[in-house]
Amino acid sequence: MALPSILVTGGAGYIGSAVCHALQQRGYVPVTLDDLRHGHPSAVKFGPLIEGDVGDTALVQKICAEHKPVAALHFAALIEVAESVREPARYIDNNVHKAQRLFQALQSSGVTKVVFSSTAAVYGMPGRAGAIAEDWPLQPINPYGQTKLDAENFLRGLLGVTSVALRYFNAAGALPEVGLGEAHRPETHLVPNALLSLLNLKAEPLTVFGTDYPTPDGTAVRDYIHIADLAEAHLRALGYLLQGGKTEAVNLGTGTGASIKTVLDSIQNITGKAVPFVYGPRRLGDPPFLVADNKRALSILGWQPRLGLTDIVTSAYEWHSSAIYRALMDGEAAG
Ligand SMILES: NC(=O)c1ccc[n+]([C@@H]2O[C@H](COP(=O)([O-])OP(=O)(O)OC[C@H]3O[C@@H](n4cnc5c(N)ncnc54)[C@H](O)[C@@H]3O)[C@@H](O)[C@H]2O)c1
Q: Is the pLDDT score of 332 beyond 70?
């Protein structure tokens, strides 16, 4: 009997490729649809890669007819907050309009179970302290967060389609044992940027934005979640939908925050080397504290994170030190 396929948009990207690994381990065939604007073909290791745009209705219908996926996981998106502020129309087009076309093409092809990559950015700047639950106000403060919320809302309203919107907090870490990890250009995330400075793979030192936040050490606190834990949550969400679960939005975080200084200390403890950094002013729209209340993920999906900051830093350090990572980035620079 043929193994069930899952359509994975953005499967050549950082998180999508890690989830493809988990799908293959669990007996699914991940069918990646990615236009490779930011993805890497070499990250697609566990199933076919179809190069194309998620907004191409005819292509999505053709893939559904050929591969008969039992569900879709939609990762493909533009992901940079600052870029979304500079170019909102591009974000609305890619993250909302193309997502809408994808969801409708899936619906018309009979693919009625969808897991959607959403984000903590849908909560914006929380007006109260504490871990953020799914019923907190949804008030994005940048176009990126707004596009993800708009796509969530559209998907929720689609007749006959059930979905889980997974609102990730800060995805981090790598799977060096299978040659996968973060390789964004430009890189905007803390852990890889700190490691690239430490490994002399970028010229300038890391900037720590803001030292006067109302947090224990003055730097911003975030909830860093390992991509292996994120991948497991996708498998749980998929199983939940395939067993008839209803549409939900679920936070994915550890429930424990780490300040920027804590992350830098952890890197120093693990690698024995200090990250070169400079202090800068706060960035507009950066909340002091973003940590997930992850109780719903446990109650609905039976999911809880297993890995912590040490696993994140150790795996990311191994990944960014690897020949595969360097070849990937050198190859791109050359090409
Ligand atoms: N990285 C994080 O910390 C984080 C946090 C919260 C949410 N998310 C969400 O997770 C998802 C994946 O993030 P990532 O870090 O893996 O990003 P990524 O850039 O590594 O991967 C996204 C992939 O989508 C592809 N893509 C983009 N637009 C496309 C289109 N129109 N058609 C086909 N392919 C397209 C890109 O080529 C890329 O391979 C995104 O939806 C993002 O909003 C990420």
A: no
Task: Count the neighbouring beta carbons within 10 Å of the beta carbon of residue 72.
Answer: 30
% the chain with pLDDT above 90:
91
Among 7, 117, 329, name the best residue to mutate to test ligand 1's pocket (greatest count of ligand atoms within 8 A of Cβ): 117
Return the SS3 of 215.
coil
3-class state of residue 126 by DSSP: coil
Angle at 239 between CA 250 and CA 103, to 5 degrees: 65
- Residue with CA nearest ligand 1 atom 32: 53
The tens digit of pLDDT for each residue in 171-221 reads 999 999 999 999 998 888 999 999 999 999 888 899 999 999 999 999 999
Q: Give pLDDT, residue 335.
A: 38
User: From atom 26 of ligand 1, which residue's Cα is the shortest distance away?
Assistant: 76
| CA-based R_g, the chain, Å | 19
Is 317 among the catalytic positions? no
Atom of ligand 1 nearest to the CA of 94: 31
Among the atoms of ligand 1, which is closest to the Cα of residue 43? 39
End-to-end Cα, the chain, rounded Å: 41
- Could you tell which of 19, 37, 53 is best to mutate to test the pocket of ligand 1, judged by most ligand atoms within 8 Å of the CB? 37
Boundaries of every domain in the chain? 5-334
> Residues 300, 221, 184, 82: what is their CA dihedral angle, to the nearest 10 degrees?
100
Residue 178, judged by CB atoms within 10 A of its CB (0-12, 13-18, 19+), counts as: middle
Q: What is the pTM of this model?
A: 0.97
Of these residues, 28, 144, 224, 240, which one is catalytic? 144
Atom of ligand 1 nearest to the CA of 121: 6
* CA quadruple 96, 98, 100, 102: dihedral sign: negative
What is the topology classification, in CATH, of domain 5-334? Answer: Rossmann fold (3.40.50)
Distance CA 287, CA 125 (A): 6
Cβ atoms of 38 and 183 closer than 8 Å: no
Whole-angstrom distance, CA of residue 144 vs CA of residue 111: 26
Ligand 1: residue whose CA is nearest its atom 21: 13
